[in-house]
Amino acid sequence: MHELSNLKKGSDENIIKYTSRAKGIRQELSMLGSHVDENTLVLQILSGLPAEYDMIKTVLENMDGKRNLANVSAKLLPVEQRGSHGRSSSATGVKSQAFTTTASKKPWDKRAVVCY
User: Fold this and answer.
1) For residues 38 and 31, is the Cβ–Cβ distance under 8 A?
2) How many CA within 13 A on the CB side of residue 41?
3) pTM higher than 0.90 for the full model?
4) Domains contained in the chain, number
5) Tell me: the pLDDT tens digits for 13-36?
């Protein structure tokens, strides 16, 4: 369990490799009789991310309910891709990713608003 709680994403490691490494640790722990549920695994993965993921990490950590590793990984990939294209993860870019995560539906449709 110590190895999982100290999990950190390496600078040379992409999100896919990082999450695969975490799943491998989880599997080893399971074979030793220490079960780690998916929600706990996701929270450990999020806690080991570097500062460039802080905004989306905060959004994902504060989601209601259980977290699904596949969905969380899919939300982390765009942040990684922005960083790998030579652009720094600006606050605006990360904020827009966080907004996309939390606001999947429009609260209202502009075409339905009628002004008199």
Assistant:
1) no
2) 23
3) no
4) 1
5) 999 999 999 999 999 999 999 999
